[in-house]
Amino acid sequence: MEKSLKSVAINYGIYLGCGLVIYTVLCYIIDIEFLVNLWVNLLILPVAIITIGIVSSAKARSLLGGFINFKQAFTAYFIPVAIGIIISTTVTVILFNFIDPESAEQLKEISINKSVSLMENMGTPQSDINNAIETMENQETFAVGTQLRSLAQSILFFTVIGLLVGLIMKKNDPNLA
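Below the sequence we write its predicted structure tokens.
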């Protein structure tokens, strides 16, 4: 991959990382409960991450005169996504382990309360709810190991999406065939 394509992908990764950090900090300042909001975490953030990856891949194809092979398209998608998620995870670990660990406990309580409410609404037996509460109370959501595991799962998920994006964005130059 040409240096300019890598630098474009790296720049988009930094933009994504900064955007995710700004989101985290704004939620932290405005209302920390947004950080455990199911709709935001399952819909809005993944869409934003995938969109940046697609934009980066499209920009790479544009830089190559409209033609891009699968490897280039996938790499142009993967680099910004990985960089953005790594930056965001790093800031989250620092914020909730070193700067304000009390907020991590507050988020755990909010998450437990939301989960209990959801399970009660679904008619989950009380014994199952009690087991879930015990499991959640024993988890260290913002511990470095937990965050690294979450980072790996996120990168794996977005890699699968990136493979699809690479296939869609791929456009071979007919003059080279």
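The longest helix spans residues 70-99.
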